[in-house]
Amino acid sequence: MNSSVIDLTDFQGYDEPGSATATESVIVDREEAFHEPTCSRLPSECTCSNVSWIWATHQHRVNESYQRSGKWMLFPNSGKVDEAWFKVVDLLADRKLGGCAKVAPVCRKQNNMHVICIYTSDHENVKEVFSVLHTLRNSGISSASSCTLNYKTDDATYAAVYATDHAAVSAGFAGAKAPGHKNFKVSKYTSVGFQGNKKVMMKLNNIGPDHLCSLVAEMPLEATTTDIDEYFQTLPATASEFAEEVLAATFESNHLMTDYYPVERDRSSSWSAYDYNSGSGSPKK
User: Fold this and answer.
1) Rounded to the nearest 10 degrees, what angle do helices 225-232 and 126-137 cross at?
2) Record's family (predicted)?
3) CATH class of 8-273
């Protein structure tokens, strides 16, 4: 079966198919002027004191901003970050990963790990977010091929929502914002590593006041262009729309179970309490 990556020009916020020009295919670094003359521009080597990130942005999108932007994050080590970054830039130039990506140089690495952020314009757009994920899974990048990946909104970043105080302080904040709920997840979407079935899976986190999570999209890693086109017609338009469906189904399920089982019951068997990571419960699409 011939695999295919998804052309993001099919989605709102990106150029229409076939509209690319030579200028639009040019990739630039927003902080190019801050590099020292002798800098190699490699994330594993860049130590320029005035460079916060090494960027790859379509030239015609340098000055664009989006109100609902977010990013998938990769964490290659220093020995693999250059190779991973080159592949991300190549995919970006081919317009398979949206309009922008950035990588941490040496000064920003933690525990010998560099973060690569691959942006989308609208974190509510399930198709756009999932298409970038599917492309990353097919990219051959070791840190994107089979490990768990997380997608974080820029709103969460600006609000100092981090898993630990150390991470927040490293990003320039006084500390991490308190989660407020035991089930709260820093990431809006999570894609667990492959479980042997070679499917790309994406769950939506923090659904409703109980911060439920549910599988919002899945597709075989190796899918034909026809398979991709047909499947994408079935995806919800927005994350909020899907969350409303999950909450409605959860309410109905709990209501029916209460009618038939008025005594105290084990909620761990309820669909609403499905544990995505352990595989317990009975999730629905």
Assistant:
1) 150
2) Belongs to the UPF0696 family.
3) alpha beta
Domain edges within the chain: 8-273
Q: How many CB atoms lie within 10 A of CB 16?
A: 8
Tokens of 67: 């109100």
Residue 150: other Cβ atoms inside 10 A:
18
User: Above 90 in pLDDT, residue 195?
Assistant: no
**pLDDT tier, 108 (very low <50, low <70, confident <90, very high otherwise):** confident
Residue 202 backbone dihedrals phi, psi, to 5 degrees: -135, 130
Residue 285 CA neighbour count, 13 Å, CB half: 8
Model pLDDT, residue 196: 65
Distances (CA, A) of 193 to 1, 176, 221, 250, 276: 22, 27, 12, 26, 12
CB 238 within 8 A of CB 126: yes
- Given the structure tokens 């989006």, which residue do they identify? 66
Supply 175's token pair: 């500390």
The number of C-alpha atoms within 13 Å of 7 and in the hemisphere containing its C-beta is: 12
Overall size of the chain counted in residues: 285
Maximum mean pLDDT: which of 95-99, 215-219, 227-231, 279-283: 215-219
